Structure formats: C-alpha cells, structure tokens
Amino acid sequence: MIERPITDWLPLTKQEVEKRGWDEVDIVLVSGDAYVDHPAFGTAVIGRIMESEGFRVAVIAQPNWKDDLRDFRKFGRPKYFFGVTAGCMDSMVNHYTANKRLRSNDSYTPGGEAGFRPDYATIVYSNILKKLYPDVPVLLGGIEASLRRVTHYDYWKDALMPSILVDSKADMLVYGMGEQPLREILRLVKKDVPFSSMRNINQVAFLHDTQTGDLREYNDWSTVELASHETCLEDKIKYAANFKIVEVESNKWQANRITQNVGDQVLVINPPFKTMTEDEIDKSFDLPYTRLPHPKYKKRGPIPAYEMIKFSVNMHRGCFGGCSFCTISAHQGKFIASRSEKSILKEVDELTKHPEFKGYLSDLGGPSANMYKMKGKDESICARCQSPSCIHPVICSNLDTSHKPLTELYRKVDANPAIKKAFVGSGVRYDLLVDDFNKNNEDGNHDEYMEQLVTRHVSGRLKVAPEHTADDTLRVMRKPSFKYFKLFKKKYDKIQEKHGLSQPLIPYFISSHPGCEEADMANLAAETKDMGFQLEQVQDFTPTPMTVAEVIYYTGVHPYTLKPVKTAKTRDEKLAQNRYFFWYKPEYRDWIRNRLNKLKRPDLADKLLGSPKKDKPGGGGGGKPFKKKWY
C-alpha cells in the first residue's frame, strides 16, 4: 500500500501544522470521535468545507479532558473560532444502554475502546475552551447539540435541561446538517463580522441577553414564542406543547423563528434552510477526502464505525417517515436531499481503487435505503406543508415514491466491471413497496425494484423494521399496520421462491415504546412466532432528545393531542416487556404463563407455549418442537 503524505489529512498535531508551513490556525475543530477523513463523519465534512473556503483548519480529536488540558491548547488560539461537536452520536447514547448501563465499547474510537470522551461531551469541551480562551467564539454543531438546542428531557439525569447553549456557554449553534449555515458563517467571518452580529443566518440558534435591549426582527420572519424553560420545569403539558411547535417549524420550508425565555436570556432558533439541492449535496460529498482514518491511529487498532462503512456509499440524506422514536428526521429533516448519479458513480469508482477492496460494496443506501430521489410532485404544496411525516397515517398524494431512479442506479453500479456485488445494508422502508399501502405502482416500479433488490443486492438477509404488531402502538410510533409487513413478506418470499433463493428477512422490533402494554408484547411474540421468526435481538426503547416518544415518556401525554399515553417506565415493567421475545428459552416459560394468567390472557400463553398439559421445556405449540425456520 502506497503511503500518503500526512498533509493529505487535516492536521491533528502541531507538527502537522508546521509541515503545511502555517504560522497559525484559523479554525480549530474539537470532536468526541476519532478523526476519520470520510464523508460519513461530520468533522471531516465540516473541516473540508472550511478548507475549501480557504481557511486553515486543525482538528483536536478525542482530547483528554481530565489532565492539564494540553490537548485543548496544542494549536493555541485560533484566528477565528472553535467548532465543537460530541461526534456522530449523542455522547449519552454512545455511553449508556437503554437500562443506563455503561457500554464497554465505543465504535468511534480506535480499537473500539470506551472512555475517550466525557458524558455530555459538547458541554464539557465548550466549557474548557471558554475557560482557556474566554474571548474566542465557540460554535456548536453535530447531533448532540442539534437535538438539545431547546429545553429537552434528559433520560440519563431524569430531568429537564435548558438549551445546550446555556450549559455550554457557547456563542452559537448550528442545527441539522450544517453545510448551508456554515458556508454563510464562513462568508461573514472572512469580512470580520463578529459572532454577536450574526443574527440573521438560517438554521442557527443563539442566546440573546435581554439586558442589552429588545430582540430585533430579521428577514421578515414571524416569531413563535415557546413556554419558557422555567415554565416547562413546572408544567409538563406546556413542555409537550412546546415540542409540537419545534417539530413543525423544523420541517417547514417557510418556517417561523422560535424564541424561548430562559433566565434573563432569550433562546433564538432561526428557521432552517430549504433542503440542499443536488449540486449542494454533491459539493459536500465530492471534497478531497482521503476516505481513511488519520495514520496516528494505526497502532491502536481499527475504528469499528469506519470498518462498517468504508466500502459503502451514502446516496441521500433525510427521511420522510417521521417515526416517533427516531432522530433522523429531527436532525437531517424530512425532505430528501439526493446526490446526482454522477457523484455516486464517481465515489463507487474511487472505492474500487482502495487497496483493500475485493469487489464488494457493503451498502448502497441512506437513512432509509429506498428513498432516493423521492420528493414532492408540486413543491409549492411542500412549501406550505406542516406534517412531520409524508407517509403517516397515509402516503401523501403529492409525494413521488417511484423507485425507478434507484433501480436504474443499482443497475449502473452493477455494470461497473470492478463490482462483484453491491449490497443494500441500510434498512429498507418496506411499506413503500406494498401496493395496498403505496398506490404508486401503476408502472410496476415496486415490482421492478424488489426483483432487482432481492436477486442482486441482499447480503444473506434483508433488514426491515416493522417495530411492532399492535396497531395502537404503531399509531404512536407513526408506523403502518403490521398487516402491511405480512403482505411485504408474502411478496418477498414469492420472489425468492421464483429465483430459488433463501435470504431471510430480519425484522426489527422495539419493546417498552410509549403506547405499548405488556399484553401487546406477548401478542407480538405470538404473531412473530406464528410467522416463523425466533427473535434474538430486541431494541429496548430509549427516550432520546427531540423525539415525540421522548416527550410522551417524560410527560405522559402525546404532544399533538395532549391526551394520556401509557408508557412502561420502571425497570421491572421494561424487563417484563422484553422477556416475551424469548418465549423459546426454558427459563422464561413458567414466568410467561404465570404473568399472562395474571393479565387474564391465558390464550396468549397457549399461543406461545402450548396448552399447559403439553407444556414441555424446549417445545413449541402443543408440546411439539418449533418447526418453522429460525431467523
């Protein structure tokens, strides 16, 4: 393998800065992740954009926050500002399981080692920088800052926290995918405009000190005022009502400015930019990435998150599903930003030249694999839309869900002589492929796509996410009825049978989600057993900031209706729901039967375990072995 010069990466050390002949650094980026120079890692994207605009950028990756803070001082005072991110994940989600147990690994650290970033990393890093360099502006970005930009419930502290701007003492925050506001910030920085005067940029948040005067109006924006942070501390219903406003305004093209009083300050959240155009998103992906981790990590072992995606291609951003538990649309938006075919195929060509490439792409995908090029037929309707989801409770009549552009792109990737197989590793949104749910199949685009997908792009098994079987729970989740998953499986199995394939579906489910009762989980286990699934991996619900489900978990009401929604909250309640998945384990059989009898659902116990007289350890229904295929 040919060694690349160290100057191909953004500098991580003072020596690397000197090798570039720089006498100072313009901007220093501080990240909770190891530095991987790849478009799937936010620090690399932001750093390369800054570089493309003529700025001298250095990176402090996973600094030691416990010692004398030398890592934070190694580049000295930057000319313009510090950029701070916790990394590709919220640091608390990165550190803790749904049961608040400390994780033993970190996928964004060499060797997968845990312990290289603090809890609440954005706050910790920003406070250190403000202490060391009080007069240097700090700009926050990344998913942790983005989803904590307003009063939010923190599951790990079991408390409401104010905007992260308050605790971090930072000067400004960029929310969502940050390229558009960042380019505007950089344009003003070049003109020596101070951060305190950057008040009319879309997609940023900042704190206004009321003692300095009234908040000015900008850009003819209308302003929506939220209940104050202090009011939210006293009134959960007001907090829930706030969330609806924030979610609606975050997913509009013609959005309002949001304000919220917190102490003697006013939090200001400017409206988002319109979704990136094809040219704009191509510009981000086409920057000169090495697509490799920084060489300093070689002796520390591979970075698991990089190993997972190094031979994958991200084709689009955004998700119009609007699932209640998911942060993708909250951060990336509901409108899809798709790359051009030219940009994607160029990246595929670059990957084939990687010295470790063996002919296999691990993923041609995105947040949801099959939303590429999907958008509103009439954008003037989208401009007025306030719905957080384009496909719940039904698919919007204005949404073009044709899979033809994606099918054609798959075929073009397949035609590359260096590609043996290009797999789809991202989850497929199966409801878009069920004719009873998605009527947009007059030209057969669903069938054409599924045939291509199943015969050419499944790596042994296909991941889909029905998430639950109970309609009441699925409505809270903003997911379609389970009957559509059954129809999808029927269609999938028919294609497999036609081609003599055996590629199991792997369905994903969530336990303890708001709206889910214990009997619902038992019924889920019974239904999936009847379909031939033995579930081995189950996700326990985690209330993450800026999601509908988090608001329900904390307040007990749905933010759109303000009506009560029952939620499992105690450890015992959550464990009880989770256990039903493992009906096939002998140690749970007595517990399941006794529990369901107490719930007056012996019928479900018989479905899962067989009738009591024939109930034998290891047996299936009626005491007979479980014969269906185990996935």
Topology:
Blueprint: H1 14-19, E1 27-31, E2 36-37, H2 42-52, E3 57-61, H3 70-73, E4 81-85, H4 91-95, H5 121-132, E5 138-140, H6 143-147, E6 152-154, E7 159-161, H7 164-168, E8 172-174, H8 179-190, E9 204-209, E10 223-225, H9 229-234, H10 236-250, E11 257-262, E12 265-269, H11 278-285, E13 292-293, H12 304-309, E14 312-314, E15 316-317, H13 328-332, E16 337-338, H14 341-352, E17 360-361, E18 363-365, E19 375-376, H15 379-384, E20 399-400, H16 404-414, E21 421-422, H17 445-456, E22 462-467, H18 471-477, H19 482-499, E23 505-511, H20 518-530, E24 539-540, H21 548-555, H22 571-579, H23 586-598, H24 602-609
Parallel strand pairs: 1-3, 1-4, 4-5, 5-8, 10-11, 14-18, 17-21, 22-23, 23-24
Antiparallel strand pairs: 2-13, 6-7, 8-9, 9-12, 11-12, 15-16, 19-20
Helix pairs in contact: 2-8, 10-21, 16-17, 17-19, 20-22, 20-24, 23-24
Distance between the termini: 40 Å
User: Number of DSSP helices?
Assistant: 24
Q: Which stretches are low in confidence, meaning pLDDT under 50 for 5 or more residues running?
A: 617-631
Query: Portion of residues in helices?
Result: 25-40%
Query: Which whole number gives the mean pLDDT?
Result: 94
Beta-strand share of residues: 5-15%
CA radius of gyration is: 25 Å
In which order are the strands of the major sheet placed? Answer: 3-1-4-5-8-9-12-11-10
Structural class: alpha/beta
Assign an overall shape.
globular
* Main sheet attributes: strand count, strand direction, barrel closure: 9 strands, mixed
Q: Can you count the beta strands?
A: 24
